[in-house]
Amino acid sequence: MYIPEHFRVRKGEDAIAFMRANPFAILVSTTDEGPYATHLPLFVQTEGDRVTMRGHVSKANPHWRYLERQPQCLAIFHGPHSYISPGNYTARESVPTWNYAAVHVDGAAKLFSSETELHGMLYELVETFEPSYRRQWEELSPKYRENMLRQIVGFEIVATKIEGKFKLSQNRTKEDQANVIASLENSNDSAISGVARMMKERGLGTSRKNEIE
């Protein structure tokens, strides 16, 4: 990913926090026919410097076979984004742009399909998104649960490289940044207002020293 230094995420914990806050990722693999992508939720775990992502795909989805043949893959975590009008800038000679946040994670995948491992992965996702569902799942008939588990393939990806880009007008003046925030923060579209929120969280558009991390 092309990352000008203004926009580079320098702290690993910021990238991890972003991944956890935006867990619906795009998993990309290379195949003989070209790139292949699947949109799916990922559970992110850290142990020291080791970062892993766990999830699953339908057995009907050929992606797991691509991961089996070529474990190297890319997970893209994407967050809020918005068009930025040059009308927000004090300098008339300005052009439109787009603000956004994304984290790319390269890694190597390992597949698993045993009932124990699949249950462990599913419980991680359930605890992340709807803890109360675990009781309902466990009360379902064994036959139904076994049938559901037979239809998925789990995977764990060990991260080998993590790159984050938060393009949030860090290269503009504080006045320009404040104008951008004001133009976005009241939008009913959370993707747009989310950009303003991220900018404010990072101290942009204020007298506080800009944090380009």
Task: Describe the protein's architecture and organization.
33% of the residues lie in helices and 35% in strands. The chain is of the alpha+beta class. The protein has a single domain (5-113, 154-199), classed as Pnp Oxidase, Chain A (Roll). Strands 2-1-5-6-7-4-3 form a 7-stranded antiparallel β-sheet. Mean pLDDT is 94; it is low at 208-213.
Notable characteristics:
alpha+beta, Pnp Oxidase, Chain A, 7 strands, elongated, disordered C terminus
Measured as a percent range, the helix fraction is 25-40%
Structural class of the helix and strand makeup? Answer: alpha+beta
Side by side, the strands of the main sheet go 2-1-5-6-7-4-3
Number of helices: 7
Average pLDDT for all residues: 94
- CATH architecture, by name, is Roll
| Strand segment count | 7
Please, how many domains?
1
- The proportion of residues in beta strands is 35-45%
Q: Can you say what the CATH homologous superfamily is?
A: Electron Transport, Fmn-binding Protein, Chain A
| Cα gyration radius (Å) | 20 Å
Largest sheet: 7 strands, antiparallel
User: What is the CA-CA span between the terminal residues?
Assistant: 17 Å
- List the secondary-structure elements in sequence, H or E: HEEEEHEEHHHEHH
Provide the CATH top-level class: Mainly Beta
Parts with pLDDT < 50 across at least 5 consecutive residues: 208-213
Overall geometric form: elongated
- Which fold does the CATH topology refer to? Pnp Oxidase, Chain A
